[in-house]
Amino acid sequence: MTQEQIPDLTPEGVAAVETVADLARLLRQLRRREARRRGDSEWTYRELAAKTGWSLGSISGYFDGKALPPTDRFDALVGQLGATPAEQGALATARDRVEEHRRVIARASGAARSIPRQLPTAVAHFAGRAAHLAELDALRTAHGPTAVVISAISGTAGVGKTALAVYWAHRVAGEFPDGQLYVNLRGYGPTGSARGPAEVVRRLLEALGVEPQRIPVDPEAQAALYRSELAGRRVLVVLDNARDTAQVRPLLPGTPSCRVLVTSRNQLSGLVAADGAHPIALDLLTPAEARQLLARRLGTDRVTAESRAVEEIITRCAQLPLALAIAAARAATHPNLPLAVLAGELRDASQRLDALTTDDPATDVRAVFSWSYHALTPEAAQLFRLLGVHPGPDISIAAAASLAGLPVPRVRHLLAELARANLHVESAPGRHTSHDLLRAYATELAHLTDDDQQLHAATHRLLDHYLHAAHTAAHVLDPMRGQLSLTPPQQGIVFEPPADHQQALAWFTAERDVLLATIDRAAATGWDTHAWQTAWILGDFLHRRGQWHDFSTAAGVALAAAQRLADPAVQARAHRNLAFAYTRLNRFDDAHSHLRVALDLYREAGDPAGRAHTHHILAFMLGRQGHHAEAIEHDRQALDLYLARGHRAGQADALTMLGWHSAQLVDDRQALVYCEEALALHQELGDRSGQANTWDCLGFIHHRHGSKTQAISSYQRALELYRDIGDDPQEAAALNRLGEIHFATGDIDAARSSWQLALTIMDQLDHPDANAVRAKLATVDGLTGSGPG
Q1: Fewest CB atoms within 10 Å of the CB: 32, 454, 517, 602?
Q2: Max mean pLDDT range (265-274, 414-423, 438-447, 650-659)
Q3: Residue 365: which pLDDT band, with cuts at 50, 70 and 90?
């Protein structure tokens, strides 16, 4: 901005405001003008603070251009400084403009990692739908500046709703630089259990970069946070396979800069009537479009050479895109097979998929599915049926091998055969999935073809696979964590134990959704032992990732399963696990209730170790609430029980906690005694994780005690161990605290180095403290002038 463009209190000057500094300049002009009007000196910042009741720091920040006043404060301040009503309106507009400009800059500079790109791959041979694509294009400018454009694409199963939505979304993705969200709401699927809005909102918030710890428990608060995250952002939201309006409405953005596509078999008339959604009814392909689809997949020459057979295929497939795609896949993989033979197979196929028959008999896809299925080898057909037993959403090759009771190389070959038949797809390297209709078809075939004993055995192998694979991976993540006494696995299950911490973490990351679905399926079908054991094992991973909502949900399912088993010891463990999840969600009253029940059950079961673990969590809960004296009481009870039991790992953990809580009460001498004793035990046991945590605690104590050299040494020892065991989150936390020591003692370069290393790790992990560390780096850059610009 040139000298001539410096804002003043004229309408032109106010309109030229671009930055917080510009706005501050106008506030100073108002202050001087008001002083002249009163014939007195300018109000000092201290006087203005007294008049407004705001802090001196806030006032100085507003006038120095270091802070943007909130809307209500800004309006009050310009009124206090004598602005006319017209000036107040113009200044309010200028303030809003500055705030929006800051948001744009913040998104451009700091939100690159939180821009979701979730659109699935578009159909390679998309054909037809020109009118619908044009209709979607026209809607981009159809609404006013305050309305969210919502398109509701409806039609029968397999008509190509998702294909159209995803194809168009890819065409316009560039118009939504802040990201594209996609979620399958599973409104219509084999299980009949649609995804609840609360679950979906949490997943969408995670995709938008919101840390799990920031996501509130209350569903309405979650939806409000979701709308706030989207405010002012240009995001395309694709909500696929919705069951009804109630499932969709909480997922709608509140900002007109976003665009929403919804697909459903339901017409969603409520969404059209109340929310202004534009309905797009997707019907069957026209004969010309259906021929175009086949020509693109099979080649024009082949389609032209057997024109009459093609016409019959189109008729028998009812011009349904899904059916035509499967027919084309079969023809493409058998290039020497006359299309007339395929037309005959369609003509004679029996109908079996009653649950998915629509009100138009011509749209029945059973024939297409059946001949594709019957063309499989016997082994591939059996695997296809058994995949209907799997809870989804996808499956690894090893899990498929366990399900079928076959070697991995053989199953890999069979999955490739299913993919060629268009009955399964490789959704990611080594992971396979299928369309909901195909999953339903596989499930029905399994119950029609395989006897109960075979299905029971396959289910048992599948549940054993996930239970034992998770148990093994969890032990790699934390060798000192208490292990369950599992029943030996069924013969035929296969899994490869992870070689190190990173492989174990990657396994849990890939299987998280499957494990959660497996826990639900096991509990719903009478496999209660598998349900609670898998939930308990998964809890450690969910704890490491901060996914407390999933943790509490799984723990709740486990508790219900434990209660059905009527085993006090199992119930106690389940109550304790759920209480830990509630503690991390700050649901302290609920956590306390479950912990008290757990203590009573452990007493009934005569399990002192269980009581010790429960007191340990009680201490942790109380510490999070700031009740450190009470926490110490439970730490001591835990320690006494561990000592009586000879549980040395527990003793070490309890001593570390005693040290931490004593330090919070500024009892540094006693805290050091506890931590040094804990460290000796951890070292004797070879518990590197415990040693790292204790060194971390010692670093905190020495720092607070003013022993810089010892504090730095302690943190460095903790860092070495965290790096050795591959505990990236704890390494980042220790680097963060080490940076604070350097900063407090004036070693700015060392502070910057530690915080930069911490931020690099936190950004890789989407760590909730990343922004706080980024702010600290900005502070040191401001002090040294080494920052950007």
Answers
A1: 32
A2: 650-659
A3: low
In a 13 Å sphere around the CA of 244, the CA atoms on its Cβ side amount to 5
Is the dihedral angle over the CA atoms 77, 81, 82, 83 positive or is it negative? negative
486 & 601 share domain = yes
- Cα gap 144→276, rounded to integer Å: 12
Whether 664 is covered by a domain: the verdict is no
Residue range 511-541, pLDDT digits in tens? 999 999 999 999 999 999 999 999 999 998 8
Phi/psi at 258 (5° precision): -95, 160
CA-to-CA dists, residue 588 to 123, 550, 558, 584, 658, angstroms: 49, 17, 20, 9, 21
Is residue 121 in a domain? no
Using a 10 angstrom Cβ sphere, with 0-12 exposed, 13-18 middle and 19 or more buried, the burial of residue 655 is buried
Report the percentage of the chain scoring pLDDT > 70: 90
Beta strands in 225-275 (DSSP E): 236-242, 259-264
Based on the domain organization, do 271 and 295 belong to the same domain?
A: no
Is there a single domain that holds both residue 414 and residue 520? no
Question: Does residue 560 share a domain with residue 421?
Answer: no
Residue 384 and residue 366 share a domain: no
Predicted local distance difference test score (pLDDT) of residue 458: 96
Question: Domain tally for the chain?
Answer: 5
Average pLDDT over residues 609-636: 95
Long-range contact list for 117-121, CB < 8 A, 24+ apart? Answer: 117/179, 117/180, 118/179, 118/180, 118/181, 118/182, 118/183, 118/207, 119/166, 119/169, 119/170, 119/173, 119/180, 119/182, 119/238, 120/166, 120/182, 121/166
Q: Which domain holds residue 396?
A: 378-450
Is the Cβ–Cβ distance between 628 and 661 less than 8 Å? Answer: yes
Same domain? 187 vs 295: no
Provide the pLDDT for residue 144.
Answer: 53
pLDDT single digits (tens) 676-700: 999 999 999 988 889 998 999 999 8
DSSP states of 312-335: HHHHHTTT-HHHHHHHHHHHHH-T
Per-residue CA distances from 404 to 407, 430, 472, 683, 767 (Å): 9, 16, 21, 45, 39
Q: Determine the length of the chain.
A: 789
Q: Are residues 211 and 170 in the same domain?
A: yes
Rounded to whole angstroms, the Cα distance separating 293 from 160 reads 12
Check whether residue 143 and residue 266 sit in a common domain.
Answer: yes
Average pLDDT of the residues in 474-496 = 89
